[in-house]
Specification:
InterPro entries: Cys-rich_flank_reg_C, Leu-rich_rpt, Leu-rich_rpt_typical-subtyp, LRR_dom_sf, LRRNT, Wnt_signaling_inhibitor. The chain crosses the membrane at residues 353-373. This protein is an alpha/beta fold and 417 residues long. It has helices spanning 9-51, 192-201, 272-279, 300-308, 347-373, 375-404, 406-416; strands at residues 64-66, 71-73, 92-94, 102-103, 119-121, 129-130, 143-145, 153-154, 174-176, 211-213, 235-237, 259-261, 285-287, 293-294, 312-313, 320-322. It has an eleven-stranded mixed sheet, with no helix packed on it. Helix 6 (375-404) packs across helix 7. The longest helix has 43 residues, at 9-51.
């Protein structure tokens, strides 16, 4: 139509193109806003997570932790104290090869408490002092290893708590105190055996103990009644010490004892009291290898006991060390006629007596030489003594004759007047 508006094909294409542009703009705007809001949400969540405090029980920085195994290892980290942020799930704790030096009271007290801790290994951490109550607030502790520490001061209440009379018995079942004697320990001022014994029997804290190891501590003896407060003991290991006798130790109350290790000590003989106590334990196994047994008349009862008993493991390996004529003889092959008490001295003592004899002979030779060189003066001196004695005796004889004759007596009296 002339002069009117025409909506032909060109106008229709324009309208379609405009609709597509508008639709794309709306879509892009919505996507941009959606992406912006998603990014903002992610950033907010990340900042919120990072702002949260660390969860309790996370692993201490110098340690390695395994929650699945309930184990924490702080090995060779040069720690000077027990980490404060131990996870409460820990059951096995290794603090070995560190620089702890001192273990104070309540060293493992935590909030929340370490109720699950069962095994504690402190070996080789240069511990010198263990104070009273050092292992308090560990109600599940069953195994404790303090080996290879130079313990100069082991408190009598280290295992029983600061108040031994009021505290409950220790839950310990296994205690390892191997090689804990410090090199500079002064035996003249303090008794290492007494210090260990006081910690073992204080307050009956260890009456539930099943295993006790005291190897490589140069123990010379076991104090009297050191084992009396541990009636549940099943395994006692005293290897590689310097024990010379078991006379003052009583095993009578250890009715559950299953193994007694006495290898590599300085035992010479076991006396009748000890033999009877060991024979009275129903299920014990005794190990006596590598001791310097003295096969003399004092060994008769022990040899007879060895031939009858079954408690000594490897008894066919036991041999004599002294005297020399009995060296390497098997104890089970000895008879009572082989065991005598001849005064056979050890080689060192024999050497001492030979040296003493040489010295005395030399002194005697010098004395005789002096006498020979002064023989003339000595002869003159002896003659003078003889003459003096003769004159003295003649005077006595003269007085005797005067007293025996009354006439001479009167004559003597008149002449005196």
């Amino acid at each position: 139509m002339p002069g009117g508006c025409s909506w032909g094909p060109a106008a229709g294409d324009a309208r379609l193109w405009l609709a597509v542009v508008l639709l794309g703009w709306v879509t892009s705007s919505s996507l941009t806003s959606s992406a912006t809001s998603s990014t903002s949400s992610a950033q907010f969540l990340a900042s919120a997570v990072s702002a949260q405090p660390p969860l309790p029980g996370q692993c201490p920085p110098p340690c390695e932790c395994s929650e699945a195994a309930r184990t924490v290892k702080c090995v060779n980290r040069n720690l000077t104290e027990v980490p404060a942020d131990l996870p409460p799930y820990v059951r096995n704790l290794f603090l070995t090869g560190d620089q702890l030096a001192v273990l104070p009271a309540g060293a493992f007290a935590r909030r929340p408490p370490l109720d699950e801790l069962t095994a504690l290994n402190l070996s080789g951490s240069r511990l010198k002092e263990v104070h009273a109550g050092a292992f308090e607030q560990l109600p599940s502790l069953r195994q404790l290893d303090l080996s290879h520490n130079p313990l100069d001061d082991l408190s009598p209440f280290a295992f029983s708590g600061r108040n031994a009379s009021a505290s409950a018995p220790s839950p310990l079942v296994e205690l390892f105190l191997n090689h804990i004697l410090p090199p500079e320990f002064d035996r003249e001022n303090r008794s290492f055996e007494g210090m260990v014994a006081a910690a073992l029997r204080a307050g009956q804290a260890l009456r539930g103990l099943h295993r006790l190891e005291l190897t490589s501590n140069h123990l010379l003896y076991l104090p009297r009644d050191v084992l009396a407060q541990m009636p549940a003991l099943r395994h006692l290991d005293l290897r590689n010490n310097s024990l010379v006798s078991l006379t003052y130790v009583s095993f009578r109350n250890l009715t559950h004892l299953e193994s007694l290790h006495l290898e590599d000590n300085s035992l010479k003989v076991l006396h009748n009291g000890t033999l009877a106590e060991l024979q009275g334990l129903p299920q014990v196994r005794v190990f006596l290898d590598n001791n310097p047994w003295v096969c003399d008349c004092h060994m008769v009862d022990m040899v007879a006991w060895l031939k009858e008993t079954e408690v000594v493991q490897g008894k066919a390996r036991l041999t004599c060390a002294f005297p020399e004529k009995m060296r390497n003889r098997v104890l089970l092959e000895l008879n009572s006629s082989d065991l005598d008490c001849d005064p056979i001295l050890p080689p060192s003592l024999q050497t001492s007596y030979v040296f003493l004899g040489i010295v005395l002979a030399l002194i005697g030779a010098i004395f005789l030489l002096v006498l020979y060189l002064n023989r003339k003066g000595i002869k003159k001196w002896m003659h003078n003594i003889r003459d003096a004695c003769r004159d003295h005796m003649e005077g006595y004889h003269y007085r005797y004759e005067i007293n025996a004759d009354p006439r001479l007596t009167n004559l003597s009296s008149n002449s005196d007047v």
